[in-house]
Specification:
This protein has 451 residues and is an alpha/beta fold. The chain has two domains: 219 residues, Rossmann fold (3-Layer(aba) Sandwich); 184 residues, Glycogen Phosphorylase B (Rossmann fold, 3-Layer(aba) Sandwich). Helices cover 45% and strands 14% of the residues. Helix 3 runs parallel beside helix 4, helix 10 packs across helix 13 and helix 11 packs across helix 16. The protein is globular and about 65 Å long. The protein starts with a helix and ends in a 5-residue tail after the last helix. The C terminus is likely disordered.
């Protein structure tokens, strides 16, 4: 048995060496790729050097690095950061993301009290030289990767430097696990690099253990514990005044192929709800103008153009960033986008926390545990297509008792994991240097002792 493991590990080294060589050879071409992404609005032109590992400004004292690739991961980290900040007053945080949207929302939603303790950078590309520059500049005391970010050069370089690492809120699909399983030596080296692995579900934990994360355990989904999405009161008052008493159906974070189905459902609903307002908030707001052309038969108003829904507005395109907290507060029912098409769905608990009844399409693989629990508890309704969406939305929008029952059940589910950030913070704290005793000179001021 031991010989087989050693042989698998030996074979696993070859793909990792090949990946290291390939990324090194590709490095001279990556600035062109980054420049192209910047022209398409997918990178910040002024911060491209961060993708090469530059721009380190390490603060004094203990530093925890957290990485979440996109919006969901980085936002789920906020309650964890708050719990860690309260438990470790001297701790500073570096948060890296891979998308512009995640960076903007992190800045917008970071509590003011933490602004001076949290720095953001875009994650370095997985090129050995970029990774080395990043790690040498920041020298984090520990690293936390959120959900499923597995970058070979980055993980192995951090492990070589002795940086303790955690994989939290981890999820891995059967398909991904099978893919990693074809390279058992590679999987063992990468997943085994984590000192701490906390999965969303027991099935995720089992798959992680099989791949090499021997201590993986299931504690639940950190997204259950996220704070309610914010909404500026003046903007909320203006939108409510513009809508008045009209019933509102929201399609939140929609993907291509869903908007036409929502528009069809709207047309069906208007037969019984002639004053219905349907709000469509595309997952990628830059699609707004194209959607306006696609739905021109409904003469949609665009929020990005400064428009508010008037009495005759049938469809309102909320093609703006970071306003779902506002939209959930005015909606009587919300279809969670990415679920009517095979994308896997967005987070339904964002609506649940704000008292908005949830409708889910058939594709909820990104949030299977959450979706199944909500459906079983009567906290959400499943819809298969435009006709089913119209029927379910009509029932919720015209039956206040039903809507109240759904939101009450959803609120209980959302509240169940309220202590999870503190539990995770305590586990992550074991990876950090022990706080120095009070009164221990400069070290106490920084929260750590020099070795």
């Amino acid at each position: 048995m031991t010989g087989g493991v050693q042989e698998a590990d030996r074979r696993g080294a070859l793909p990792l060496l090949a990946w290291r060589a390939a990324t090194t050879l590709a490095a001279p071409l990556l600035p062109l790729w980054l420049a192209r992404r910047a022209r398409r609005g997918k990178e910040d032109p002024a911060r491209l050097r961060e993708r090469c590992g530059e721009g380190a400004e390490r603060p004094p004292g203990p530093l925890l690095w957290l990485h979440g690739a996109s919006v969901g991961e980085s936002q789920s980290a906020l309650p964890l950061i708050e719990a860690l900040a309260e438990a470790r007053p001297a701790l500073r945080f570096l948060v890296t993301t891979g998308t512009l949207t995640a960076a903007r929302l992190l800045t917008d939603r970071l509590p003011g009290a933490l602004a001076g303790r949290v720095q953001h950078r875009f994650a370095p590309l997985d090129v050995p030289a970029h990774v080395a520059r990043f790690l040498d500049g920041w020298r984090p005391d520990a690293a936390v990767f959120i959900e499923s970010e597995i970058w070979p050069n980055l993980l192995l370089a951090a492990r070589a430097r002795g940086i303790p690492m955690a994989l939290i809120n981890a999820r891995i699909s059967d398909r991904s696990a099978r893919g990693w399983g074809r390279l058992p030596g590679v999987a063992r080296r990468l997943f085994g690099a984590f000192d701490l692995a906390i999965a969303q579900t027991e099935a995720d934990a089992e798959r992680l253990r099989a791949l090499g994360a021997r201590t993986a355990r299931a504690w639940g989904n950190l997204k259950f514990a996220a704070r309610p999405l914010p909404a500026p009161e003046p903007a909320l008052e203006r939108l409510r005044a513009a809508i008045g008493a009209r019933p509102v159906l929201l399609a939140a974070s929609t993907h291509p192929g869903e908007e036409a189905q929502v528009a069809e459902a709207h047309a069906r609903l208007r037969q019984d709800l002639p004053d219905l307002l349907t709000i469509i908030a595309p997952r990628h707001p830059e699609r707004g103008p194209a959607l306006a052309r696609e739905l021109e038969g409904f003469d949609p108003a665009l929020r990005s153009a400064g428009a508010l829904p008037g009495p005759e507005t049938a469809i309102y395109l909320a093609d703006t960033l970071g306003e779902l907290g506002l939209l959930y507060r005015v909606a009587g029912a919300a279809l969670i986008g990415g679920s009517l098409v095979p994308h896997g769905g967005q987070n339904p608990l964002e609506a649940a926390r704000l008292g908005c009844p949830v409708l889910l399409g058939p594709h909820t693989g990104n949030f299977t545990a959450i979706a199944d629990r909500m459906l079983e508890a009567g906290a959400a309704l499943r819809v298969a297509d435009a006709a089913a969406l119209a029927e379910a939305a009509g029932g919720v929008l015209t039956d206040a008792d039903r809507a109240r029952s759904m939101t009450t059940a959803a609120a209980r589910i959302a509240a169940d994991a309220g202590a999870l950030p503190e539990r995770m913070a305590a586990a992550i704290g074991t990876l950090l240097p022990a706080p120095a005793p009070e009164g221990d000179g400069d070290a106490a001021a920084h929260g750590y002792k020099d070795a």
